[in-house]
Amino acid sequence: MAAFSVLWKALTSWYTLVFVVASLGVAAGLLIFVLVFPGKPKIGVIHIPFTVIEEVPAYVISEYLKYARQDDSIKAVVITLTTPGGAAAASERLYRETSSLRDEKPVVLVMNDLVASGGYMMAMGASHTYATPSTLVGSVGVVSFAGPLIPPLPNEGVVATGPYKLSGFPRRDWIGTVNQLKGAFADMVVAERRGKLRLSAEELAEARIYSGSDALWLGLVDDFGGDAEAIEKAAELAGISNYSLVDVNVEVQRKFAQDLARIVEPLSAGSHSPLSQVLTLPPQERFVEDPLLQSQSGAGPSGITNLQTLRELATSGIRSTTEEDPLSELPYDLNHPKIYYLYLGYDP
If you placed Cys at 169, which of 23, 118, 173, 209 could pair as Cys (CB 3.0 to 4.6 Å)? Predict the structure, then answer.
């Protein structure tokens, strides 16, 4: 009984209570830290090399944006972009995807050589934009190929219901639709650049292209800078200081390869299949550039060539696009016209 009394006195002494309370406090603090701060915060980096925004590239870029939005460890995103624009629907999709990402975490976009038309529309979804003095920016407008004033007569074997079943609507209505889209594009830029823009909607709709220096003065971009400045700005906007970088392109490509492996590998013949060869490449060869946004025809390092083979296993019929001739097949040989937010270059 005396021993129990001594033990009780020791347990209830002030220094024992202090030790117990301190231990509980440390344990609670560690638990809160683990639950609230599960890991080092990250800044996701998305690299978009020269790309004409069409359906397949827009899908790939959307996957990058979706991954960055869904990964809770990514607190801010930096996008590097070079594009003359592209198809209207695809460009509008990327603007919506970028602005949706901006609603959840800061998005800083770096304009490299050229960000025009539909590419500039996508950039309007960012929280902050950087350019260089030599970057080409702007071309807020629409390109359309509506066909001849008098459409050719259809083949005698074609039977169509309604006078506009083959054409969609009269040429005059088509021109009105294009002007409507032009005005909506300009109004969107005015709204996104509210308080910074020195151009009216009418001046924007002239579809001029501006140097980075003029674009900064006119309020089309926020600042001069590159990747380093963009990363610092993203961290500032996210309120983080101790962070790491994650290459979103690589992560999405790795996930794509793993998902594709589960489908294709059972159908492949052993270790010599193209897919097996790609998956066994070291990372530095596997992701030298961004093959998901490259043309399929160009030669390059073995990693790019094999990854293009991997890409071809999943998608086919991707048109090759180059900086010299972005869309050599315009206008499309289809029965209905197409609309583009696309900068086609200087026309003397």
Answer: 173
